Amino acid sequence: MELPFVFLISYLILSCFAASCHGVTFSSLQKTLIVSASSPLGHDLKAGKDELTIKWEFNQTFPPGTDSSYKTVKLKLCYAPESQKDRPWRKTVDNLKKDKTCQHLIVARPYNPSNNSFTWTVERDIPSAKFFVRVYAYDGQEVAVGYGQNTDHSKTVGLFSVHAITGRHASIDVASACFSLFSVGSLAGFFYLERRKGKVSEYK
Predict the structure, then answer these.
(1) I need a labelling partner for 79 at 20 to 30 A (CA). Which of 37, 143, 182, 194 fits?
(2) Radius of gyration over alpha carbons of the chain, in Å?
(3) How big is the CA angle at 64 (ends 67 and 117), to the nearest 5 degrees?
(4) Does the global pTM surpass 0.90?
(5) pLDDT tens-digit profile of 75-130?
(6) Cβ partners under 8 Å of residue 66, min gap 6
(7) Comparing C-alpha atoms, which of 91, 104, 153, 165 is closest to residue 131?
(8) 37: number of Cβ within 10 Å
């Protein structure tokens, strides 16, 4: 009698473990949020300098109570398809735990159905690529339960380009030059003193 019970418990545990490992799929989520992203500079932004304003709200065409489980939202910067091509580290996967489309967290906020806005300065470590913004809604267990994005299903409209920081700052170059000169001068002074010591030893 005890053996079937043990098998039942084992089966339930394995089933729960399999479900948790599988995770939520993007295709299972409803697009319940309306999202927009804009910049006074248009669709070309510089990392570490330019700003992007993101607005989001619950789509009122859904039945009341659809968002009753929503507790938090996370705004994410996501790679557009053309910036994913031949880059498996940015690959889109339906399982959200394995998806690499939206790797850059912009901000997390408590959920509010309307009048949401956040202005974000593009971070310095964002690479050159084309992006869109996606907002995920999460329940109290941090499980994704809805989303919205500022682009269409094929991710071809509303995209913007980020230009990464290239080169070095002038102050860094000046500091490097000064350090190099100091090092050369110190080395020359060391050899000069050693030669003098050698000559003094010869006279003795």
Answers:
(1) 143
(2) 28
(3) 50
(4) no
(5) 999 999 999 999 999 999 999 999 999 999 999 999 999 999 999 999 999 999 99
(6) 30, 32, 58, 146
(7) 104
(8) 25
